[in-house]
Amino acid sequence: xxxxxxxICEDLADIMPPEYHRLVESATFGDQDxxxxxxxxxxxxxxxHSLCAGCPESIAFRYILASLPAPEDTVFVGSTGCxxxxxxxxxxxNIHSLFGNQNAIASGLKRTLKSRFPDVxxxxxxxxxxxxxxxxxxDMTMQSWFxxxxxxxICFDNELYANTGGQESGLMQKGFVAKMAPKGKxxxxxxxxxxxxxxxxxxxxxLTVSKPNRVEQxxxxxxxxxxxxxxxxxxxxxxxxxxxxxxSMEGLDEMKESESIGGRFVQKExxxxxxxxxxxxxxxxxxxxxxxxxxxxxxxxxx
Amino acid sequence: MNKQVELKGKRIIASKxxxxxxxxxxxxxxxxxxxxxxxxxxxxxxxxxxxxIKEAIRRASVGTSVxxxxxxxxxxAALIGELYAEDYLDEYFRGESEFAVMGQCAGxxxxxxxxxxxxxxxxxxxxxENFPMWAGSRLPIQVCVTCRGxxxxxxxxxxxxxxxxxxxxxxxxxxxxxxxxxxxxxLKGFIVAEQPDVxxxxxxxxxxxxxxxxxxxxxxxxEDLCLTPYNxxxxxxxxMDMEIAPYRMMRDPFVMKSNYINYSTHASWQQEIKAAVxxxxxxxxxxxxxxIDEENSDREILIVTSGTAVSQSREAxxxxxEEGIKVGLVKIKTIRPFPYEEIKRATKHAKHIFVPExxxxxxxxxxxxxxxxxxERVYCGPHVAGGMTMPSEVIxxxxxxxxxxxxxxxxx
Lengths: 303, 412
Prior knowledge:
Helix content of chain B: 25-40%
Radius of gyration of chain A: 20 Å
Largest sheet of chain B: 7 strands, mixed
Strand order of the largest sheet of chain A: 2-1-3-4-6-5-7
CATH architecture of the largest domain in chain B: 3-Layer(aba) Sandwich
Low-confidence stretches of chain A: none
Number of domains of chain A: 1
Largest sheet of chain A: 7 strands, mixed
Oligomer: heterodimer
Strand content of chain A: 5-15%
CATH class of chain A: Alpha Beta
CATH superfamily of the largest domain in chain B: Thiamin diphosphate (ThDP)-binding fold, Pyr/PP domains
Low-confidence stretches of chain B: none
CATH class of the largest domain in chain B: Alpha Beta
């Protein structure tokens, strides 16, 4: 969608909500270098949210939306859970249909958009919790990877069912006492990044959302690889502070602790050769583009 | 609601965003649905029901079809794959289960394609969570349901019980009697379901094996004429392709709130889906020439039913007529919307109403009973189930027995 399409008809400008005006005036659409640093100044994609105060998922949402390479041509597919409370606030087309079918929806959607818009790259991004991705939806998650469906799957891993009140999930740590695991979970946290790699994902990343620049890089990598190479998967630790007995301000510490040496969320990436090649070439391209822009800026205007 | 619609001169208008007369990549000409059926020459072909599904889809300008094997729809689903290989469809693939397939269909429809799929029996039930979601999301997907048993022990035989589960999903539910019906209903079904004031999914049902696996003479419209494609921008909801300015739907998501605004939003949306199904009547009546067909419905004894039970009843009526017993027939073509007024009117003079059905529940008889006055006139039966055939003699026997006429069987 081009930026012309979102222009407001003058006669109706006074009744359009302020965030729509901001979308028209200051949208980062089309800006190749948009990223997490725009969060403070560009609120057109997300401003408010209805998650708990201090919820790491809410900041993850902001980082992801700020990192999309082309929000003007991106469609999100969500699932049931805390994320479905945020999507109504997000000014990017997003689909919520059922619990666990998100990768099936995305498969049909991506293929259809590809066939309807052969000359435009329409990015499809799945964003779902760990219950949706690993438990109820694992079949469809993995089958979409087997079929090499070209979209990105992002899993908000909070290691439990948060929205229903903190029940055990497949990504919960072994031994954790939760609802429906009254004696403690008795099997290991499912190793989803490895499953994703073996199931055919060209790019896999596991990390927390404690560092915005890392999240930005990973999301960009995942989406760009999905365009050209094949399915990609990003697992983000977004702890449910409410259900693990923490305070609003303790989310960041929890993430930092879990990603330090020996933790469950030490950052890791699995990148296929083809994906690595693509990422390398993008890196060089970006560097050259930025260098050229810098030099152009240096030149006197009337030279 | 339920007012009689004058048919004369009425034409249903399909989407006009593609110019009529233009050719598609297969050289087929986009043609008005009325012209396809009522102007173009129809040629008789001797085909199985599965082949008829293929021939309908060949002419339907479908974008995506997703397939999954389950008897008795597997052949039709595979034949659509052949159409894809011949480039009649943009996308086609095998999903991993009916639940996933219906999700993949939804994704394609959200993205703006005309979508067709097929399922049957246990597949219909496995897919079930998707159907009210399709309706609530206003996705005009067509699913062809080739009905079969859903009971355990495992049965693959014809049985129409699964249709009962579809009745309150918010979908249009049509029931084909013959392969000819199936052809007509599939093509016309797209056009009705996609009308902007309808825009809900449609289940075109037929009785498995009896229709899918038997050969019948079917009049087909010319192969080089096809429906105008679906226009995703003539929809009551946004097409999810980011070609329309995005908007924040709401500040406060309804899903988690327990307050009146939430309840009333959901209630009114459910009413709107129901209303959309009712609004399909005016389009359906024009295209199907009414929601019911009547033969001698002024008689005192009537058979009212749908699907292949109608064919069996027709033969039973002929046998009864030979013995001087005159029986009329009402064939119900659309189960949703249900032809309340039509059935009330058609059964006005009847003293005995028989409802033969291919399922153990007798859901059609219940629907009719809840519709008409003096419903003790309705005799629920005969029923067969689990794949049994319904010989016309069984209907004859049941009619006679109920009327107190002695037969060799009932006087034994």
